[in-house]
Q: What sequence folds into this?
């Protein structure tokens, strides 16, 4: 029979493989186009956001409100995380110093460097991406699905500028302050852990903290913080602004906002570290 | 006056509006009616500029809105008021804050003048002593009235209402319909109401445009719609058993 012919079977197999490959390539192409489209939409939105506000006094009111929501509301979590983070770094470092040749003030030095260079700017920003990012995406997303954004547009208000710009400016201003507080508290947490557990003497710890201090490290950390603040607020706002559907989609947008912000923070952390420290 | 000329709109391959030609006069209740999915909401959103149209013209007193720049559109938008299906009040503002919002954005009034105007608008929609309540603290009918107050705060020349009666009981629906009708006649506003509520059609429909499968199928007033021979319009108007019996 014709179908039992091995040549025919081989041709059929190759054809099936070809179809599968074509489908795979098409799906990848569609995904690529989808991401490019998202990328373009993000920059177009930023074009609408980064404009002069319609009315300065309204913008100032919104800015103060956002500083309160983004900054002061996050202070509690930043304080708790920073103290415990510093404490854990101090204890782990102290336990890992086995050799008597290592001076104990290395604990203070390590805590300071870890907290200033990485833990405060990156880890706290990742936590803020979860807290602030999900709030922004769900707030703007809910406004979209309940037609509040349409209402703004109908009135002739630049809704993107009115809703998003105060959030971005507030985060860019307040996050470096939060991170600076986090740095102090992280180092303080390390001191607290060392003195309470008596692993390192207070004087040794303080000496280590002060040893070979470079102001540029703080500058580098604050530059990272500003970039991360922009990422958290702009990406979350973007995800919320283009929600289409109902409460389910608002929830999904909120999750996506946190995931995308976190991934971008990690990628930009690497890029900025390479650019500023190498 | 608003004129809609040869308007086409599609989403992908789906053609939602096909060659719509009509006009809406000031001081009249202009109703757009039709079944769900017929394209009436798309038509209204196209008229106000929330959707861009594929072809055609939309004229606001002779000004071609569809083909204007963003800045020029914003000038006309300040002459628009819109009542959304779900009221679309800003959750974070009080009733007073909601009505005051367009005044704060686009006028140079002092705070006292703005409060005076807010109180006037709220009184006009029969709402008093609710200034400091939030939208979550008031009923659906009150929300609609606050939304009307916000829409008329800037003395609009054009008023758009997207299904103003949805989710309201029949008595409150009549109150809202009459309120919109009174405001329209009092201030000589060009009002367009998107509805599928037959009570509204019969009570206040000075001009009715029936949309069927994306086309303007029939036009007339609230008297003519009850006696038309148009099959699709009759099916829509006399959809319920009660109305069928009444017709007989």
A:
């Amino acid at each position: 029979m014709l179908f039992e012919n091995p040549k025919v079977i081989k041709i059929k197999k190759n054809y099936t493989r070809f179809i599968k490959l074509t489908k795979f390539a098409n799906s990848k192409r569609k995904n690529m186009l989808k991401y490019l489209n998202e990328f373009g939409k993000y920059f177009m939105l930023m074009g609408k956001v980064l404009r002069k506000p319609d009315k300065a006094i309204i913008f100032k009111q919104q800015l103060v409100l956002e500083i309160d929501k983004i900054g002061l509301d996050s202070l509690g979590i930043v304080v708790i995380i920073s103290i415990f983070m510093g404490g854990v770094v101090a204890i782990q470092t102290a336990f890992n110093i086995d050799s008597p040749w290592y001076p104990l003030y290395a604990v203070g030095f390590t805590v300071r460097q870890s907290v200033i260079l990485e833990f405060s700017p990156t880890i706290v920003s990742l936590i803020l991406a979860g807290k602030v990012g999900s709030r922004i995406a769900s707030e703007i997303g809910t406004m979209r699905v309940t037609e509040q954004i349409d209402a703004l547009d109908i009135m002739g208000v630049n809704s993107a500028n009115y809703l998003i710009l105060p959030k971005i400016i507030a985060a860019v201003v307040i996050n470096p302050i939060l991170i600076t507080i986090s740095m102090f508290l992280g180092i303080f947490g390390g001191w607290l852990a060392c003195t309470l557990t008596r692993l390192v003497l207070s004087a040794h710890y303080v000496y280590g903290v002060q040893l070979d201090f470079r102001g540029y490290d703080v500058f580098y950390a604050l530059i990272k913080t500003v970039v991360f603040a922009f990422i958290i607020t702009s990406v979350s706002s973007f995800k919320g602004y283009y929600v289409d559907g109902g409460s389910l989609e608002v929830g999904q947008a909120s999750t996506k906002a946190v995931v995308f912000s976190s991934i971008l923070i990690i990628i930009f952390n690497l890029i900025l570290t390479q650019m500023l420290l190498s | 006056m608003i004129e809609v000329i040869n308007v086409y709109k599609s989403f992908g391959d789906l053609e939602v509006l096909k060659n719509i030609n009509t006009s809406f006069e000031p001081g009249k209740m202009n109703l757009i009616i039709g079944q769900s999915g017929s394209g009436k909401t798309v038509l209204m959103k196209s008229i106000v500029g929330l959707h861009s149209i594929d072809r055609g013209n939309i004229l606001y007193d002779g000004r071609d809105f569809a083909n204007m720049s963003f800045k020029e559109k914003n000038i006309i938008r300040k002459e628009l008021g819109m009542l959304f299906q779900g009221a679309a009040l800003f959750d974070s503002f009080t009733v007073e804050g909601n009505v005051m919002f367009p005044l704060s954005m686009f006028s140079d009034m002092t705070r006292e003048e703005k409060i005076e105007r807010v109180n006037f608008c709220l009184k006009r929609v029969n709402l008093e002593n609710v200034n400091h309540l939030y939208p979550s603290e008031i009923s659906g009918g009150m929300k609609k009235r606050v939304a009307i107050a916000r829409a008329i705060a800037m003395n609009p020349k054009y008023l758009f209402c997207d299904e103003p009666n949805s989710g309201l009981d029949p008595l409150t629906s009549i109150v809202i319909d009459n309120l919109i009708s009174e405001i329209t006649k009092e201030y000589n506003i060009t009002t367009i109401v998107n509805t599928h509520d037959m009570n509204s059609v019969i009570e206040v429909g000075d001009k009715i445009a029936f949309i069927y499968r994306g086309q303007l199928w029939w036009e007339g007033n609230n008297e003519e719609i009850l006696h038309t021979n148009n099959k699709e319009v009759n099916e829509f108007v006399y959809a319920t058993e009660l109305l069928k019996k009444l017709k007989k």
